[in-house]
Amino acid sequence: MLGxxxxxxxxxxxxxxxxxxxxxxxxxxASSSLAKSAPLRSPVSRLFPSSSSSAVVPLSRSFSAxxxxxxxxxxxxxxxxxxxxxxESEAGKRAVAKEIAHACETIGFFTIVGHGVxxxxxxxxxxxxxxxxxxxxxxxxxxxxxxxxxxxxSGYLEENLSAGYGAVTLPDLKESFCxxxxxPAALMPAQLWPDQPAELKVHLGQYYRHMEDLADRLLRxxxxxxxxxxxxxxxxxxxxxxxxxxxxxxxxxDEPVPGQxxxxxxxxxxxVTILKQDLTGGLQVKNIKGEWCDxxxxxxxxxxxxxxxxxxxxxxxxxxxxxxxxxxxxxxxxQSIAFFHNLNHDQNVACIPTCTGPANPPKYPDIxxxxxxxxxxxxxxxxxxxxxxxxxE
Length: 393
Ligand SMILES: O=C(O)CCC(=O)C(=O)O
Ligand SMILES: [Fe+2]
Description:
Layout: H1 4-10, H2 32-35, E1 80-82, H3 90-106, E2 109-113, H4 119-133, H5 137-140, E3 152-154, E4 175-179, H6 199-225, E5 243-249, E6 263-266, E7 272-277, E8 283-286, E9 292-294, E10 302-306, H7 308-313, E11 323-325, E12 334-340, E13 348-349, E14 367-368, H8 369-380
Parallel strand pairs: 1-2
Antiparallel strand pairs: 2-10, 3-4, 4-5, 5-12, 6-11, 7-10, 7-12, 8-9, 8-11, 13-14
Helix pairs in contact: 1-8, 3-6, 4-6
């Protein structure tokens, strides 16, 4: 049985999971930029290179993975799906579901337009986040993310998304502010908000509600894409524990240390992630050949990607793809807002019926959604024997 602290971590949407714990064995990575900041704390296991590093393909024309990592050639990475027809007719719904099925089976990432989220509300949340990140760090730290409170502010260089992947990596060049569900049935701590900017609570809160609604509509289409009843997912997300994370990648003052990037290589943990990004660029996905491909930003769209839970739930029919954010040549600031959608914490994750058959038995044992997230968390901080889900005998 996990204790209260673990329980609160599990509720975080598990981006908190990648905050390196205070009491881990400390390894100070020698680097000029790190020397100026808090030392990186990392389990010893992270000091050894892993076999998960990817195939090297030519560097992209526009982005650098800080000199040491592979990057993309210019190739179309992910499809764009217009959801509008799905809101207009049954035939439209089926056609869109088919496009989603293809994207989920092949790359696990797609851009959506025609999503129905009002632009004015997207802009209001976005602008409130800019104002928040422009505040001095001392103001932002008034609502800190801690081991006991999974939301709030996480400072620059305080997280390493690659930490669970075994490779030696440096902390991400980013800061973030996180919020969680409003529904008391999710059994989450109440959200704490900074006084300034005053509008953050209203606009980011409203944005969270839009993301909940969009996730609900997307999962209806995903149910059709999996040949399920359209309402298959609805009872499983009625008191979901999704986390929303506003991210700021400050303008790079100096040349980054080789290998240090804005967000290290990782997969997301939950069902789907809904990402709004600005036009700076830098997000890359790893395709089936192990090549990094740029996700080209377009205005007012969202990027959708699948998390590990969805991949496991679908018996690996759908893919949870590795991705990262690399540094722009211009050193420009970048912003994004990621909504990490999760299931109800008490939902059993048992192979989806349409993803198995006599020749394709379930690969994974049943598991509660929050327990799976805890496993991911523990693996990401070096406290689990394996980060791979256990396969059924
Ligand atoms: O900022 C982005 O574009 C992506 C960030 C991300 O992948 C994450 O925080 O999980
Ligand atoms: Fe991610």
